[in-house]
Amino acid sequence: MNGRSLRIVLRALLIGVLFGFVLVKSEVLSWYRIQEMFRFQSFHMYGILGSAVLTAMVSLQVLRRMGIRMPDGRPCGMEPKVTAGLNTRYWAGGAAFGLGWGILGACPGPIYALIGSGYTVMLVSLAAALAGTWTYGALRNRLPHY
Amino acid sequence: MPGQVASLITEPWPWYVAGPLIGLVVPALLVFVGHAFGISSSFRDICAATLPGKLEFFAYDWRDSAWRLAFAVGLVVGGLVGWVLLGPADMSGPAVAISGATRTDLAAMGITDQTGLAPPQLFTWRALGSLPGLLVLIGGGWLVGFGTRWAGGCTSGHAISGMSNLQLASLIAVAGFFAGGIVSAHWLLPLILRGLG
């Protein structure tokens, strides 16, 4: 129930707007920036990723130490991701994602933000990403995961 | 003074401003929404909401993910506000300040028009009529959607959220993201762009 109450949904919408705005202002949603990153020709994207991870890490520690709770009353935190065996899903799935990221120059957040930025043809890429997600759902039992 | 404030909004932000703001999305979503940062699961939610099928992977109540769909809609609105309403006034020149080396490399690959957020040669409806456009927009999009679900997360869920939580799984996934991305940027993309003619 906690993901659907109106107040929660409106808050998520607002955070999304702010995040989308930052994606534009930081040029993270630009295809050119992603090409530059994978060619190691600028620090810009690495600086953003690094400082974002660091900020999130410190924030998580602060939330935990202060004992701040989520709207449903549980302490702030995330479910740990399962690691086992060869961890195939992470490196193989990650590599498939990376191949797409390097061509399309946009990961899921920027795909949405680019649609709003006037690059409406990204609706086609969104549909293609949905098709990819559906394909995963269809092949799931036959793909190696761990 | 009003001019300085206006330029703060219209000019691009440096990494040390943008990065921490992006990092703050993680605690903001936990505290105000009660969920971990992750966007690509919205693809699964949309599939679950729109494709009535027999696949077990999509057989769940997507309404519980309403917050994530709202977050995705917010991203679209944020893009609209940031670029269409408050973006650069002059769109005719190179809008994104990438390095000269990248400009030269991209030009050598046939990306001669480097205006906007993404090259018009590939990111317009007209580009769907060309093989490079199709491969980039549809092939790239498909791989992003397929890979992210297989890996269990994307740049937000693994690279930012997972790494900040020191998850080994996310570190492996991010290594995969970059391995794939480097292969694409250096070999696959130049091959695809040969068809630009």
Please write out the topology.
The complex is a heterodimer of chains A (146) and B (197).
Chain A lengths: L5 H20 L5 H8 L5 H22 L22 H17 L3 H9 L5 H18 L7
Chain B lengths: L1 H9 L4 H9 L1 H9 L7 H10 L15 H20 L14 H9 L22 H21 L3 H10 L3 H26 L4
Distance between the termini of chain A: 31 Å
Order of helices and strands of chain A: HHHHHH
- Uncertain segments of chain B of ≥5 residues (pLDDT<50)? none
Radius of gyration of chain A equals 18 Å
**Strand elements of chain A, count:** 0
DSSP helix count of chain B? Answer: 9
Estimated helix fraction of chain A: 55-70%
Overall 3D shape of chain A: globular
Oligomeric state of the chains? Answer: heterodimer
Average pLDDT of chain B, rounded to a whole number, is 92
| Sheet/helix structural class of chain A | mainly alpha
The shape of chain B is globular
Q: In whole angstroms, how far apart are the ends of chain B? A: 49 Å
Instruction: Bin the helical content of chain B.
Output: 55-70%
**Main β sheet profile of chain B:** none
Number of helices of chain A: 6
> What structural class is derived from the secondary structure elements of chain B?
mainly alpha
Tell me the radius of gyration of chain B: 19 Å
Largest sheet of chain A: none
Q: N-to-C SSE series of chain B?
A: HHHHHHHHH
Mean pLDDT of chain A: 95
